[in-house]
Each structure stands twice: as structure tokens, then as C-alpha cells.
Amino acid sequence: MKKIIALVLAVMLVLSLCACMPNSKGPKIQEVTDPTNPESIKYTDYADSLDGLCNYFADMGYVYALPDDATGDEIKDPVVMKADIIGADEGYKFTYIYGSSTIVLELYSYTDTNSKFYKQAKSEGKITVAEDLDEGTVDAVLSDNGKYLMIYNDSEENAEREALVTEAFKGFYA
Length: 174
Description:
- The protein is 30% helix and 20% strand.
- With 174 residues, it is α+β, with helices and mostly antiparallel strands.
- The chain has one domain.
- The strands form two sheets. A five-stranded antiparallel beta sheet has the order 1-2-3-7-6, sandwiched between helices. Strands 4-5 form a two-stranded antiparallel sheet.
- The longest helix has 19 residues, at 2-20.
């Protein structure tokens, strides 16, 4: 009888531990793929706004689409950034997988071109977010029209992909 009780308790313990284990698949990070016909996608079909830029990038396969209520509550949603920290009006951060690479892409809109971060991006091609940290400086690109800033980080060296994204970004309502 004691053996049966011990066996039942052991099975219950195993089942309860399995139920408490985190999902082995982990959180899903959105994947993006290239569009089937990118030549037909024109930036002029989108609003000249940060949301328009994000939607254009989603259709081009550079980020995933913005949800109707972009809150950043799920890992597949973009994170709504505290853009005022870098003198921007608004911003989104996308984390996604392209091929075997993890890409983090941040997009910001600016109306105040007197921000020190805006000026630094324009003159140096980077911004210093945390001056006391070695990794506090990141590469940043301004769009040719001066309204938008992009920070692009790739876990692998993929210069061709970065060049495509940068070209589309810089040319958005240039």
C-alpha cells in the first residue's frame, strides 16, 4: 500500500512540475520575408508619417505590420518607444527574424531638428544615448527628408540587407 501511495505521489509530482515548466518553444519573435513583387510597392502610396513609413516597411518585408493598437504588449508587436528621450516625437522598435539573423530596427519621427541627438545623427551618423557606457553609442541614419531616424542592428553581418533597408528608408518622401 505504501508503494502505491509513493508511486501516485511521484506521478503527481512529475505532472505538477511539467505543468509549471515554461513553454519549451519560448516566445515567438515575428519573422519577415521578402515581398513577392517589391517593384510594385511605391512609398507614395503611404502617408508621409511614421505609421506610413512602418506600413511601407511592412509591405517591403523590412518589418512586420503594425497592429491597429500598437501597444507593444506582445513580443510580436513593436515596442512603442519613449521617443522624447532622444528628442523625437514618436518611435517604434521592431525585433524580428530574417533568415538566420535577428534584427532590431527602430524608427523615430522628428519635428524638432534642434535636438542634440538629431544633430549628432546628422553630423556623425550615430547617437550617444548613455555617455558613460561603451555600448551607449549606436549607429543612426536620418532620412533624406530629415523627418525620420533609423537605428538598425543585425545579429549577423548582412550588409546587402542593411543597404536595401537603408536605401528605402532614406528615400521615403525624400
